[in-house]
Design goal:
- This protein has three domains: 53 residues, 434 Repressor (Amino-terminal Domain); 128 residues, 3-Layer(aba) Sandwich (Rossmann fold), CATH 3.40.50; 128 residues, Rossmann fold (3-Layer(aba) Sandwich).
- The radius of gyration is 24 Å and the shape is elongated.
- It has 333 residues and is of the alpha/beta class.
- The longest helix is centred in the first third of the chain and has 16 residues.
- It has a six-stranded parallel β-sheet, sandwiched between helices. A six-stranded mixed β-sheet has the order 7-6-8-9-10-12, with helices on both faces.
Length: 333
């Protein structure tokens, strides 16, 4: 809750709210009453408003994420809120819905609420957002999807390490015909993983693109296209994320192709449902709680004008082996 919320509800300016809280005597009784009613209705303590006016802080952090419906980002949001609340901050969350245009609006909406700092997971590799962030007058930390040209504070996971773990695991099992289910490549982390995959497979790996869906449906339709093409199937598949991997498993099952006997599949993220499905999904776990905790801690250090220790934090993933991978089926002689 911010001064802007109180002002909007009372239909007055932020300056008027400030004057009421400070006890300025030259305020019309009706206006004062509206402001006080708004403060009470919103459950906002006049003391906290007054403190914000004295310190120049609102004790509110802005957080912009691409998809609030995603299990992946839900974990990040919950962690940020937990750490922020422990430090006496509230979090104002806005969903950019994976749209560069909505993302700019989301950033403007968040910063108009007088937030003390901003955490953002960018939707795509849009240069417009990066330029917008570089001009902001408050501390900003970019998380997870960090563009290569971004010069500010950031916290991310090593995407090359993700691919090395996934492809290395398939190779260790004996797979040589390996393909990648590719989410939309305008997302920073996807393009980074594609380049790492092509490098590791020395250009011999197959890319199986989706349309514009990086969820269950995207993985399902990409696998269907692969099956309908009539070409030889890869024995190992690395999916851009867990949801795409699960969608592909469904498509293979409908065509009588068994996972992992006929094809092995590795996902990325380790969303909670992975361990409870049949087959349980082998995946590369991203340390989301640690990522979000490091991001909010870095931001709070910047707000307090303390050196955060590092301008860029890169975290390492972990391979979680379950039931969706195995040795490739031996061809009949």
């Amino acid at each position: 809750m911010t001064l802007r919320d109180v002002a909007d509800r009372a239909q007055v300016s932020i300056t008027t709210v400030s004057n009421v809280v400070r006890g300025w005597p030259y305020i019309a009784a009706e206006t004062r009453s509206r402001v006080e009613d708004a403060i009470e209705a919103l459950g906002y303590s006049p003391h906290s408003i007054a403190q914000g006016l004295r310190t120049g802080r609102t004790q509110v952090i802005g957080l912009v994420v691409p998809d609030l419906a995603s299990q992946y980002f839900a974990v990040m949001v919950e962690t940020v809120e937990t750490v922020a609340q422990q430090r006496g901050y509230n979090v104002f969350v806005v969903n950019s819905r994976n749209s560069p245009e909505l993302e700019i609006q989301a950033v403007e909406q968040v910063t108009s609420r007088w937030v003390d700092g901003l955490l953002i997971v960018q939707s795509t590799r849009s240069a417009n957002t990066s330029k917008h962030l570089s001009r902001m007058q408050i501390p900003v930390v970019a998380m997870e999807r960090v563009p290569q040209d971004y010069q500010g504070a950031s916290c991310m996971i090593d995407n090359q390490a993700i691919v090395r773990l996934a492809v290395g695991h398939l190779r260790d099992l004996g797979h040589r015909a390996i393909a990648m289910l590719v989410a939309p490549r305008d997302i920073t982390v996807v393009e980074a993983r594609v380049q790492a995959f092509l490098s590791l497979t020395q250009g011999h790996g197959t890319l199986i693109p989706t349309a514009d869906d990086f969820g269950l449906h995207g993985g399902y339709t990409a696998a269907k296209r692969l099956l309908d093409s009539g070409g030889a199937l890869p024995t190992g598949i690395f999916a851009s994320n867990d949801l795409m991997a699960l969608g592909a498993i469904r498509a293979f099952s409908e065509h009588g192709i068994h996972v992992p006997r006929d094809v092995s599949i590795v996902g990325v993220d380790d969303i909670p449902s992975c361990a409870y499905l049949t087959p349980a999904l082998t995946t590369v776990r991203q340390p989301l709680e640690l990522l979000a905790s490091a991001g909010i801690t870095m931001l709070l250090s910047l707000i307090d004008e303390k050196p955060p220790g590092a301008q860029q934090i890169v975290l390492l993933p972990e391979l979680i082996v379950r039931e969706s991978t195995g040795a490739p089926r031996k061809s009949k002689r």
